[in-house]
Design goal:
By secondary structure, the protein is of the alpha/beta class. Helix content is about 45%, strand content about 25%. The strands form four sheets. Strands 13-14-15-10-16-17 form a six-stranded mixed sheet, with helices on both faces. A five-stranded mixed sheet has the order 1-2-4-6-7, with helices on both faces. A four-stranded antiparallel sheet has the order 9-8-11-12, with helices on one face.
């Protein structure tokens, strides 16, 4: 068993190689994880886990114990896990458990992809660690909206709403139809300018910035109603998200030679990574107007990710989806947040999803904020129960 465990100090990762192994009894599971725990304990620190499942067989009778021991090891010694080489059955078993227990499956086709994901995890941890140090141990606020009012003539869409969003977290805005949720997202994205109030991003006032300037700061969004170019392919739609990142000018673009070709190649490489990440390789050349609704939503997410956002605004990303499509979208949202460290602000009507994946929830009703807090606090708030969840 010892030869199956390799410590890669240079990347801070422990590699567990299950290649060709068969786990048929709980005793075999215990033997392996006992060795892992012993090695981890001896190092005196926490590690990222790289798990190789190529040609590994785990019989159904021991899956629960295998998963339980893995979970214990992750809690005690892990910083994050990536998985490679899963069979179709193992992949499905991991994803079902990930959905049930709300952890990130992080399954990749190749070892190189998994190593790249580990690098993103480390980068995020270093960034958040530095932010925490700068904030004297407190979670850093990346965005705050203060006393926001939004009027359309005599109609008050938002009245005196304020809240803060922490870096690297998933925050949700919930409320009945007409509560002002999408209007708030439009204010945050710069599409609407508030009638009163202030918006601060990374400590700086950005209240009066135009939408394109807000995008340059690192904001991207998806829309409640799909806003794609239906006659263009998936690849071309996603490439439009790279517009702000492309270097060049009218002359170099018109000539399309030398620098312009190299620049397009570099941008295409970034887009191809996003296509792989969201598992839409099979439709990359398909016009999006011919895609099923759930895949169109995924392409819209891909286009937003192509902007490399620091803050991702998602307006009902799961609206109109069936259960399977919702599960896929939840997994991708969690992976974006976990692997890329993207701060996410989500509007969603599915309360099960909101309560499962959110770190912080803001509740709006009739243009005002009626509650905020953790999912547990919001669920038990009597004002929310009475005004939104419909209990009497």
């Amino acid at each position: 068993m010892r030869d199956r465990i390799t410590l890669h100090d240079s990347i801070g990762a422990m590699e567990a190689d299950f290649t060709g192994m068969t786990f048929t009894t709980e005793a075999e599971v215990e033997e392996f994880y006992d060795e892992v725990d012993r090695r981890m304990e001896a190092t005196g620190k926490r590690w990222y886990f790289l798990v190789i499942y190529t040609d590994c067989v785990i019989v159904p009778e021991v899956w629960d114990r295998f998963a339980a021991r893995g979970k214990i090891t992750n809690i005690k010694y892990g910083l994050g896990t990536v998985r490679v080489g899963t069979s179709a059955g193992t992949r499905e078993a991991i994803r079902q458990r990930a959905q049930r227990e709300m952890f990130r499956a992080n399954i990749y086709d190749t070892r190189d992809q998994a190593i790249l994901a580990l690098g993103e995890m480390r980068k995020r941890r270093e960034t958040l660690g530095g932010a925490a140090a700068a904030g004297s141990g407190e979670t850093q606020t990346i965005l705050s909206v203060e006393e926001i009012h939004l009027n359309f003539g005599g109609v008050k869409a938002i009245t005196n709403v304020g809240f803060a969003v922490n870096r690297g977290e998933i925050s949700s805005i919930i409320g009945p139809n007409g509560a002002g949720k999408s209007s708030m997202l439009n204010v945050i994205s710069g599409f609407y300018r508030p009638s009163r109030g202030r918006i601060y991003y990374e400590g700086k006032d950005r209240t009066h910035l135009a939408a394109h300037d807000v995008a340059r700061l690192g904001f991207a969004r998806t829309f409640q109603n799909i806003a794609l170019f239906k006659g263009m392919t998936t690849l071309d739609n996603i490439m439009t998200g790279r517009s702000l990142k492309i270097k060049g000018n009218f002359l170099t673009d018109a000539l399309y030679w030398g620098f312009a070709q190299k620049e397009e190649t570099a941008q295409r490489e970034r887009v191809e990574r996003i296509i792989d990440f969201l598992e839409i390789q099979a439709v990359r050349k398909t016009p999006v107007g011919r895609l099923p609704y759930g895949l169109q939503k995924r392409v819209e997410l891909a286009r937003a990710l192509a902007m490399e956002p620091k803050v991702l605004l998602l307006d009902e990303p799961m609206a109109g989806m069936n259960v399977e499509e919702k599960e896929d979208m939840v997994r991708f949202i969690l992976d974006v947040n976990d692997q890329w460290g993207t701060t996410i602000i989500l509007i969603e009507h599915d309360m099960g999803v909101v309560m499962d994946i959110s770190d912080f929830v803001v509740v709006m009703d009739h243009g005002g904020k009626i509650a905020e807090g953790t999912p547990g606090e919001v669920k038990s708030d009597p004002v929310v129960i009475r005004a939104y969840l419909g209990a009497h």
